[in-house]
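We now fix the convention by which a protein and its fold are recorded. The integers have meaning only within a learned vocabulary of local backbone shapes. A record is reproduced here so that you can trace the correspondence yourselves:
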Amino acid sequence: MLPAAHRMRRSNEFALAVRHGRRAGGALLAVHVWQRPASAEPVRIGLVVPKGVGTAVRRTVVKRRLRALATARLDRFAPGALVVLRASAASGSATSPTLAQALDGALERALRRGAAAGSR
């Protein structure tokens, strides 16, 4: 379960991460990471699981899987980071290990780009 302090709830935070953050993705999901300048706030993670993923039950399963995977990876981000995980339609039929592999790859690419280019 993703702790309440780490949940992204405000639309302006989603917009900041998606519009200004570094993006990396693949066939199953996309990751948007934006580092707030000089912030001591906790990392906030938001999920976007569109209807294309499947029925409400299937979307809920994907959300639960992504939340669990994100919780295990909170330590990879600097304090104040805003992270949006956006599932694609293919994620509805993916297994948890497959989603974990896709998330790890996307996070590695997004964070590597950020280290090379510096924070925005």
